[in-house]
Amino acid sequence: MIFEGLSDKLQGALSKLKSKGKLTEKDVKDAMREVKLALLEADVNFKVVKDFVKKVQERCVGQEVMSSLTPGQHVIKIVNEELTSLMGDVSSKIMISPKPPTIIMMVGLQGAGKTTTSGKLGGYFKKQGKRPLLIACDIYRPAAIKQLQVVGEKLDIPVFNMGDKESPVNIAKAGLSHAMKNNHDLVIIDTAGRLHIDETLMDELKSIKSEVKPHEILLVVDSMTGQDAVNVAESFNNALGVDGVVLTKLDGDTRGGAALSIRAVTQKPIKFIGMGEKLDDLEPFHPDRMASRILGMGDILSLIEKAQESMDLDKAKELEQKIKKQDLDFEDFLEQMEQIQNMGPLDKILGMIPGMGNIKDQLGDVDLNGKEMKRTKAIVQSMTVEERRDPSILNASRKKRIARGSGTSVQDVNRLIKQFNEMKKMMKMFTGSQKSMKKRGGFPGLPFFK
């Protein structure tokens, strides 16, 4: 879970206030002391923490909160609003040029994930109908050009390169010319990084900026480096002037110092976040949604967007009709499982649902993403098409054959059949209460949540 340690501590500090019918100034001060410690332990910039706690405390001891019927909820609302403000109030988008191509220059230190992020960004815009071109300007790091080509190939995005003997400035200019001739409306320049910030690196980046005049300069930083990421962002911004930040490896960051400090220190928005190693694990950054997730309120909007991206809506409607008619079979079960897997790891998905943030703690040793899912798929895939479509024909000999084919036991097969039948009953209950759910908006792409 994102910012697991910080999230647990903040929720713990604020939960004490929820149980109180009336709050005193001392209650608020005690809670804010815990909030302050949680933020400092998360490696959030000290000045940022000081200003944040001061703002929250001033608002919390006001008449509106103290006289409220639910003062604890009021305090959480204020913390949520101030966290959102800290990370940028509203999400900041890439500026698309009215005259193509839009030029995005990617900068950052070695090891932050700049090359992969360049590809991910190309993939993100390709889904939106753009025709991106990746330009390989990192001529120093061994295999950097090859890495970008491999990423481009996987995403079906062309990569312009001139080898590692030409200067990065000339490669950038030639790449831009190539993009114009070939009707590419988006250019992403992958520049070289260093292990540390130095004059040579900055001079080269300034020269590329001067020659190609990018519409956006995006700084890629490793969120797991915490306060160091903030220092890197400040240095790059002072020397080069950046338009936004991409935070990588956020899925592995349990602290959150970089995400909560960068905007306040540099005044530059976080525009994207890297949430995993897959090439589609790049998301626009929404400060309000991130604040909600940190405070255990979930992120339903992002979950719906993931569902809409990953799920075939026509198939979802077809499945909904099958559920209504009690006509669900193992083929539908397998298809739905695969679509849910496309949305990402199950613990991340559940973490977006309000109250399910600490799902791992709630479920103990239950394996949400690994062996259990694979075992289930193996059993279903070991059935014949006839057996999947009509589970009632699964007799003892067929179950033995399925167990052998899937490397499982007959008990495992029986357990899955039982779970499947229970799920069908549960589906019936969901469709029975469908009208009331639809009033609340349903859940696009997941018919059994409608």
Structure described in brief:
The chain is of the alpha/beta class. The protein has three domains: about 5-85, Up-down Bundle (Four Helix Bundle (Hemerythrin (Met), subunit A)), CATH 1.20.120.140; about 100-285, Rossmann fold (3-Layer(aba) Sandwich); about 310-430, 434 Repressor (Amino-terminal Domain). The protein has helices at about 5-20, 25-40, 45-60, 65, 70-85, 115-125, 145-155, 170-180, 200-210, 225-240, 255-265, 285-295, 300-310, 315-325, 330-340, 345-350, 360-365, 370-380, 385-390, 395-405, 410-430, 435-440, and strands at about 100-105, 130-135, 160, 185-190, 215-220, 245-250, 270-275, 280-285.
What secondary-structure arrangement, pairings included, does this model have?
Layout: H1 4-18, H2 25-41, H3 46-60, H4 63-66, H5 71-87, E1 102-107, H6 114-127, E2 132-136, H7 144-155, E3 159-160, H8 168-181, E4 186-190, H9 199-212, E5 216-222, H10 227-240, E6 244-248, H11 257-266, E7 270-274, E8 282-284, H12 287-294, H13 300-310, H14 313-324, H15 330-342, H16 346-351, H17 359-363, H18 371-381, H19 385-389, H20 396-406, H21 410-432, H22 434-439
Parallel strand pairs: 1-4, 1-5, 2-3, 2-4, 5-6, 6-7
Antiparallel strand pairs: 7-8
Helix pairs in contact: 1-2, 1-5, 2-3, 3-5, 5-12, 6-7, 8-9, 10-11, 18-20, 20-21
Binding site for GTP: 108-115, 190-194, 248-251
Catalytic activity: GTP + H2O = GDP + phosphate + H(+)
GO biological process, one term: SRP-dependent cotranslational protein targeting to membrane
